[in-house]
Amino acid sequence: MRIRSLGVIDDAVVELSPGFTAVTGETGAGKTMVVTSLGLLLGGRADPALVRIGAKNAVVEGRIRVPADASAVVRAEEAGAELDDGALLISRTVSAEGRSRAHLGGRSVPVGLLGELSEDLVAVHGQTDQQGLLKPARQRQALDRYAGDAVAVPLAKYAAAYRRLRAVSAELDEITTRARERAQEADLLRFGLDEIAAVEPRPGEDVELSAEAERLGHAEALASAATAAHGALAGNPEDPEGVDAGMLVGGAQRALDAVRSHDPALAGLAERLGEIGILLADVAGELAGYADDLDADPLRLAAVEERRAALTQLTRKYGKDGGAGDIAAVLAWAETSAARLTELDGDDERIGELTAERDALRGELAGLAQALTDARAEAAERFAAAVTEELASLAMPHARVTIAIGQTEDPAGIEVGGRTVAYTSTGVDEVELLLAPHPGAPPRPIAKGASGGELSRVMLAVEVVFAGSDPVPTYLFDEVDAGVGGKAAVEVGRRLARLARSAQVVVVTHLPQVAAFADRQLLVEKTNDGSVTRSGVKVLEGEDRIRELSRMLAGQEDSETARAHAEELLAAARVEG
Coiled-coil region(s) at which residues (predicted)? Predict the structure, then answer.
């Protein structure tokens, strides 16, 4: 990694080796910034307070070598990133104003993507994680992850049934709690449908009745006009000497017929006059029939107006836009409302179906919860045995760790094993890590049953066991050995060295007994002005490493006793390795 303008670090390069790397230095020298830098590369929260005073931004760049078939590589390539000789290049920039940018394989990416990749790349175990592991919920998560597929498979089945039960229960609650509202809605729909059914409107009826009312309301004027028009076209039978349009057109046609053979053009005009005469006769006949058929019945007019009033009342209530519609809109409302009423009337049947499904799901969930509990119980025995074995190597040979798996009774829960217990999306189990520090001591929660030094060793044992179950290539331990010393510290170093045989391990430590087991030791040191420069993070070898271990042992680099002890530690670590 290259770190610039982050905390006390001005510009420094951190080269981590395969195996076990120890990062040491005086308090306040900036060792924690190494952990913070890695956290930023892995998508951690960007705090503008981390930016070095006077700098515009802090920058962390990293190169992480990953197997070509790793899921992190697949996800990175999907985001457009490119590998550089089998390695992912990651950079993170944090401005003093709080803005944050991330780049992966030469492409700008969301910071969240780095967090996704980190799950497959690095497992961070630090003092914050220790405190988190004191919480039962975190202990359950740790146990589940340790168990792997043995718990993951039944947990996935349980979670699917849990989600379905929640959905069914929510729908059932919605129907039952809104029963009164739905009943009121159904009553209103029935009233409207009954009112429409009583009138029995037909499509287009309102338009037809409007035309009929207009005709009946002006029947006398229409009859008088039709009669006058008929007389003008066909003449008045009571006035034999009267002149009408038909007679005039007939006379014009006869005049042309006498000479039509002499000019085709005139013959054509004669033909057209003949057609006009025929048309006049047809119109005159229809006018006569119209006048005879026209009914000026006031009773019919009253009936039409009454029907129109009934239809108007329907359109005002059930037409579109508060009565701006027509009978077509009323009929559409009736169709939609009938479908909705069918749905509402089916509530009782739906309630029965949902109740049956809910009860079946609760039974299924109870069975899945029991299977999940059994899987956790089996994994808990293995996990506790592994942690107990680790504690024996950490100068706690008589300590015994157990994991208690219990449930909380809840009348509204599900029945598991003859008890009605509370259930969540992760099952019915409450997991708690217990410690009996010596024979005869009752097991107690680790937060209450261990002293400070014992707690650090217990948590380190948990971290080592848990880390061994993580399918990631790199583990970072940030001073999880705090509170440990003497022989126990030597055992801490030995256990971390063994873990490093199968993975890359990075440890930030104050303990020389731990640092002596490292394959590479990095020293973080400040310059006179209080900053850490590029040369401030250096690999310690030979005499330099002995001097740093002496400082860590006695606070004095030139102490002959400390030097002898440092050389002894290194020699013992090499033999162990």
Answer: 351-378
C-alpha span between 369 and 427 (Å, rounded): 6
Give the type of residue at 168.
V
| Strands ordered across the beta sheet of 400-406 | 400-406, 430-436, 444-445
Read off the amino acid at residue 333: W
Of the candidates 488, 467, 395, the one whose C-alpha atom is nearest the C-alpha of residue 437 is 395
Letter string b/e over residues 133-148, b meaning 16 or more CB atoms within 10 A of that residue's CB = bbebeebbebbbebbe
The secondary structure of residue 81, as a DSSP letter, is -
Structure tokens at 38: 């890695």
Q: Provide the residue type at 423 as one letter.
A: Y
Nearest to 383 by CA among 313, 467, 325, 305: 467
Question: What whole-number distance in Å separates Cα of residue 216 and Cα of residue 195?
Answer: 28
**Looking at residue 407, what is its pLDDT?**
92
Residue with tokens 């069914």: 168
User: Is residue 479 a contact partner of residue 455, using CB atoms and an 8 Å limit?
Assistant: no
Chain position carrying tokens 């009859």: 223
Q: How many helices (H) and strands (E) does the chain have?
A: 20, 17
Give the alpha-carbon dihedral of 296, 298, 300, 302, to 10 degrees.
140
Rounded CA gap, 329 and 322, in Å?
11
Contact 523, 43 (CB under 8 A): no
Secondary structure of residue 505 in the 3-state scheme: strand
pLDDT tens track for 421-440: 999 999 999 999 999 988 88
Shortest CA distance to 416 belongs to which of 356, 357, 374? 374
Residue with tokens 């059994």: 374
Dist. CA 45–CA 49, nearest whole Å = 11
3-state secondary structure of 221: helix
Domain chopping of the chain, boundaries: 1-123+470-537, 183-345, 541-577
Largest Cα–Cα distance in the chain?
A: 158
Instruction: Encode 370-409 in three state secondary structure.
Output: HHHHHHHHHHHHHHHHHHHHHHHHCCCCCCEEEEEEECCE
Are the C-beta atoms of residues 75 and 113 closer than 8 Å to each other? yes
The closest alpha carbon to 287, from 345, 209, 230, belongs to 230
Three-state DSSP at 101 gives strand
CA distance 350 to 367: 26
**pLDDT tens digits for range 207-229:** 888 887 877 777 778 877 877 88
Q: pLDDT tens digit string along 434-467?
A: 999 888 889 998 877 666 667 777 877 887 787 6
Alpha carbon separation from 551 to 25, 40, 523, 537, 570 (Å, rounded): 9, 31, 12, 17, 14
Considering the chain, what percentage of its residues have pLDDT values greater than 90?
A: 20
Report how far residue 137's alpha carbon sits from residue 151's, in angstroms, rounded to the nearest whole number: 15
In which band, very low, low, confident or very high, does the pLDDT at 323 lie, cut at 50, 70 and 90?
A: very low
Question: Per-residue pLDDT tens for 254-277?
Answer: 888 888 888 899 889 989 988 998
18, 301, 518, 545, 547 from 541: Cα distances, Å: 16, 116, 11, 5, 10
- Per CATH, is 1-123+470-537 categorized as 3.20.20.100? no
Number of Cβ within a 10 Å radius of residue 339:
11
